[in-house]
């Protein structure tokens, strides 16, 4: 269905091509996962399928891509619209109209489809994606999962044969993500669509994919069955970690496979009892913290204590009030109720004074950056915080980030940019660190790095509260998990208990080894496993 | 209701008002327009702008009367007040500030301002009654790109405000209050970056969904020629019309020919683009009623001007009560007719009440709360 023939893509200013002489062909009706670390060319590869690359993005392309015999060399992306549906990373940024129904019709209007046929197809598409009850809603009022489904429906209406999705679940909570992925799966199995999708959190999709296309980053592309490719790829989802630790040649693709195999091979790990992290003094204390936006209650009488030296994960659906809680604890959001952070109420202090007690890394960390080089940002951060010159730079190095001084922060990878923002925010010496969704767009390596940074900060006595949708990250980083729903805290306790007990927030290893209390590979005594197997 | 029907009606009302300085007629037209708006506007966000236009109209009125009172140069008529006069240097001899205020010029200025305010109100009425996005959807195909640009601008503006608020909050985290020139860079650079990224995302999405696909390359030479000819005819016709006071067949023919040629040019240009429209607004009986009520009002105003030449143009001095011609009542009745003769627009609140009533038993059973999700149940803003 899709043939890449001798495909090479390079961008000016980059010495090596992003893709070099890639030859492969994707069969009709396959669900193909494009995996790789950030910056290895996943988006570039996806863009070549409908011709956005290189026409729209610049760069040079050699070779050819043909979809159902139509070559992108002779056809611009708009002329491929009836063949390839392309959904970008942020659905909201791609919406052209403001009402669901009209958004779905937009593509067909451009193709010049007769109004009667259009009416019928809109109805069919609404039903296919299960969004018929949203038809007259404004796009901005929808939840992230709904927006993503509308974005998919909007390209499906043109009845393409291929669907290309660039990280469709990166902004979604686990439940919404599995919803969207189930809808995509249904399109493959029931409608016979060929789907190519890029994704960072492989654990979410790998059970349903037919082929994996792994981009190691040197211009090659490795294409094959997921169980084999993932066994040696540099993007390692939890089940691949497990299979590497045990020594399996093929990666189990679902929790069920792994569980069966673990049972069949009698892998019965003994669980390491970690010492509970020493409980430091309480640094954050909130009683009856409430926030409302007009008639909407965003925080409903929250009682929470955070202790120094502990990393707490804050989880819950989109819109459960996680961001609001973080902003309220920082003092930047007007709230009622008692709040004490390191002995003072940040709401009473000015923004500058509050910064010395508590700091927040907002969801779009790039909002904080505005200078042309890393060095300039660090110097400005020293000045903003009133710290000694070089303090931010030193902090950056302590976080394990060795960033070249003259680089433009925009050219950094997501993980590096997050490290820079973290250093800038910590430069005023706050002991309480709040992070709002830091894992968005990070690959496994960057998440691991972030985890190491946060653990190191906690070990030095910082209080860390991090909100995240990434259950694997939360399981790895946190001592304690707070679960929010509908503006209230619904669960609060050691991560081991809270995560393992939740059906949608349990990490994959917990499900594989249930009822044993395993969250990550660090919980397992591998010496005992190997002894049993040999 | 077709958005352009309301626009046509509002333009007719504005034309009627522009023909007169008679305060009776202006007041009556304003009343008719207000009644229609209040009865036929929906309760969606874009329909809440009437207050803005009302205050703009009030501002125009107050300013005009203020200037007429304190800066008027007329010095005859009924004396109203004798204010102290500011003595100005000789180079400002034509100007007068303060001094004697006469009633007649103030009244004349007031009537003139009423006319302008009423025209503003008519524009406001059109904006309140017609959904601007839907209005842009039904422009001729040749203007399609322009309408797309306007729609995108309508969408992007609130997004930019949103991202400005977000960046401001974020920068406050970093450096406390954001002030001064340095503070401006802190805000502007991330917001611009965000906007450019959004614009690129939108362009990518439009491109990959086939925007501009059915456009045949290049315009036809005939279309351009016709467009040029039409513009020239319209220009000369308008010049003659404004120059000569009475209708002459020359400019009537020129104007008509120009309009025809431009229409044909638009049509030719539109043929290049084969974009179809999902659920186009149709033009049926209520739309004809609205259009007719406006046209009849204009015609009646013209007739009133012919029958009683003094009725439309009030001149003072002499100070006298402006005449109330019986045709005025007919004009007002005609303009207010859509308030009664057209079907009411679908209102979100009615729809909510209806669904709440219908689902009451179920909800009591389930013990659930009323559906707060207003927009889910939003009815369509087009023809019922």
UniProtKB/TrEMBL annotation, chain A:
Q: What Enzyme Commission number(s) apply to this enzyme?
A: 3.6.1.3
Q: Which GO terms describe its molecular function?
A: ATP binding; ATP hydrolysis activity; ATPase-coupled transmembrane transporter activity
- Superkingdom is Bacteria
Q: What cellular component terms from Gene Ontology apply here?
A: ATP-binding cassette (ABC) transporter complex
Enzyme class, first EC level, given as a word: hydrolase
Q: Known SMART domains for this protein?
A: AAA
Q: Where is the ABC transporter domain?
A: 2-242, 284-511
Kindly state which keywords UniProt assigns to this record, in alphabetical order. ATP-binding, Hydrolase, Nucleotide-binding, Transport
Keyword check for Repeat: no
Q: Establish whether keyword DNA-binding is in the entry.
A: no
Which family, according to the similarity comment?
Answer: Belongs to the ABC transporter superfamily.
Report what the protein is called: Adenosinetriphosphatase
Q: Which organism is it from?
A: Propionibacterium ruminifibrarum
From TrEMBL, chain B:
Keywords, alphabetical: Membrane, Transmembrane, Transmembrane helix
The record's listing under CDD domains reads: EcfT (cd16914)
Q: Does the keyword Phosphoprotein apply?
A: no
Chain residue ranges for the region called Disordered = 358-384
Name where it's found. Membrane
A cellular component annotation (GO) from this entry: plasma membrane
Q: What is this protein called?
A: Cobalt transport protein
């Amino acid at each position: 269905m899709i043939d890449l023939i001798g495909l090479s893509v390079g961008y000016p200013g980059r010495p090596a091509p992003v893709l070099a002489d890639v030859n492969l062909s994707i069969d009709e009706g396959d669900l193909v996962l494009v995996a790789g670390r950030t910056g290895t060319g996943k988006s570039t590869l996806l863009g070549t399928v409908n011709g956005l690359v290189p026409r729209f993005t610049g760069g040079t392309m050699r070779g050819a891509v043909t979809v159902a015999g139509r070559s992108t060399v002779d056809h611009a992306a708009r002329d491929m619209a009836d063949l390839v549906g392309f959904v970008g990373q942020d659905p909201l940024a791609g919406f052209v109209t403001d009402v669901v129904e009209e958004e779905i019709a937009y593509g067909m209007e451009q193709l010049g489809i007769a109004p009667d046929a259009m009416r019928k197809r809109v109805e069919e598409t609404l039903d296919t994606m299960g969004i018929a009850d949203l038809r007259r809603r404004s796009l901005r009022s929808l939840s992230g999962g709904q927006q993503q489904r509308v974005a998919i429906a909007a390209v499906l209406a043109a009845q393409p044969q291929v669907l290309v999705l660039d990280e469709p679940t990166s902004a979604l909570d686990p439940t919404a993500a599995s919803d969207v992925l189930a809808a995509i799966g249904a399109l493959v199995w029931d409608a016979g669509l060929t789907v190519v999708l890029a994704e960072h959190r492989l654990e979410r999709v790998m059970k349903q994919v037919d082929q994996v296309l792994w981009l190691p980053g040197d211009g090659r592309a490795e294409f094959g069955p997921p169980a084999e490719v993932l066994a040696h790829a540099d993007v390692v989802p939890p089940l691949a970690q497990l299979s590497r630790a045990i020594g399996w040649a093929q990666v189990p693709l679902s929790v069920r496979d792994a569980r069966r195999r673990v049972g069949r091979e009698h892998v019965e790990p003994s669980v390491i009892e970690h010492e509970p992290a020493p409980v430091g003094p309480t640094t954050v204390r909130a009683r009856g913290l409430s926030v409302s936006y007009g008639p909407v209650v965003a925080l409903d009488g929250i009682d929470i204590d955070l202790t120094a030296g502990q990393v707490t994960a804050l989880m819950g659906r989109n819109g459960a009030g996680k961001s609001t809680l973080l902003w309220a604890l920082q003092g930047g959001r007007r709230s009622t109720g008692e709040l004490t952070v390191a002995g003072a109420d940040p709401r009473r202090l000015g923004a500058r004074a509050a910064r010395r007690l508590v700091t927040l890394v907002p969801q779009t960390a790039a909002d904080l950056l505005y200078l042309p080089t890393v060095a300039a940002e660090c110097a400005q951060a020293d000045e903003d915080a009133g710290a000694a010159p070089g303090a931010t730079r030193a902090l950056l190095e302590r976080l394990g980030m060795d960033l070249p001084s003259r680089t433009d922060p925009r050219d950094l990878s997501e993980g590096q940019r997050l490290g820079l923002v973290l250093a800038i925010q910590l430069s005023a010496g706050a002991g309480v660190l709040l992070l709002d969704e830091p894992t968005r767009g990070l690959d496994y390596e960057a998440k691991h790095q972030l985890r190491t940074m946060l653990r190191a900060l906690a070990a030095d006595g910082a209080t860390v509260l991090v909100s995240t949708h990434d259950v694997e990250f939360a399981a790895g980083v946190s001592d304690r998990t707070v679960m929010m729903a509908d503006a209230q805290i619904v669960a609060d306790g050691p991560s081991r208990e809270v995560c393992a007990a939740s059906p949608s927030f349990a990490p994959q290893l917990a499900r594989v080894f249930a009822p044993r209390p395993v969250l990550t590979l660090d919980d397992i005594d591998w010496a005992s496993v190997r002894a049993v197997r040999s | 209701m077709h958005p352009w029907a309301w626009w046509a009606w509002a333009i007719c009302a504005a034309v009627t008002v522009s023909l007169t300085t008679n305060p009776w007629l202006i007041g009556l037209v304003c009343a008719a327009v207000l009644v229609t708006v209040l009865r036929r506007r929906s309760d969606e966000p874009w329909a809440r702008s009437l207050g803005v236009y009302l205050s703009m109209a009030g501002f125009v009125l107050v300013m005009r009367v203020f200037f007429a009172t304190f800066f008027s140069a007329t010095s005859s008529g009924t004396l109203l007040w004798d204010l102290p006069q500011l003595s100005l240097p000789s180079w400002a001899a034509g100007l007068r500030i303060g001094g004697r205020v006469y009633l007649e010029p103030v009244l004349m200025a007031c009537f003139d301002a009423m006319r302008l305010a009423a025209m503003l109100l008519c524009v406001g009425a059109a904006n309140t009654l017609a959904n601007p996005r839907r209005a842009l959807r039904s422009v001729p195909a040749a203007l399609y790109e322009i309408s797309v640009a306007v729609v995108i601008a309508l969408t992007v503006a609130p997004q930019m405000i949103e991202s400005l608020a977000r960046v401001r909050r974020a920068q406050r985290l970093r450096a406390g209050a954001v002030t001064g020139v340095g503070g401006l860079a802190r805000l502007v650079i991330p917001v611009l970056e965000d906007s450019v990224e959004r614009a690129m995302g939108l362009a990518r999405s439009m491109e990959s969904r086939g925007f501009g696909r059915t456009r045949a390359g290049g315009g036809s030479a005939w279309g351009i020629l016709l467009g040029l000819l039409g513009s020239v005819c319209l220009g000369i016709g308008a010049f003659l019309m404004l120059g000569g006071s009475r209708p002459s067949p020359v400019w009537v023919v020129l104007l008509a020919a120009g309009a025809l040629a431009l229409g044909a040019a638009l049509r030719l240009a539109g043929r290049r683009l084969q974009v179809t429209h999902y659920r186009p607004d149709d033009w049926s009986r209520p739309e004809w009623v609205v259009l007719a009520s406006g046209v009849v009002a204009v015609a009646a105003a013209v007739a009133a001007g012919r029958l009683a030449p003094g009725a439309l143009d009030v001149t003072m001095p002499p100070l006298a009560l402006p005449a109330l011609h019986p045709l005025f009542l007919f004009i007002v009745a005609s303009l207010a007719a859509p308030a009664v003769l057209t079907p009411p627009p679908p209102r979100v609140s009615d729809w909510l009440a209806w669904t709440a009533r219908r689902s009451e038993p179920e909800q009591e059973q389930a013990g659930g709360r009323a559906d707060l999700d207003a927009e889910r149940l939003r009815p369509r803003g087009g023809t019922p």
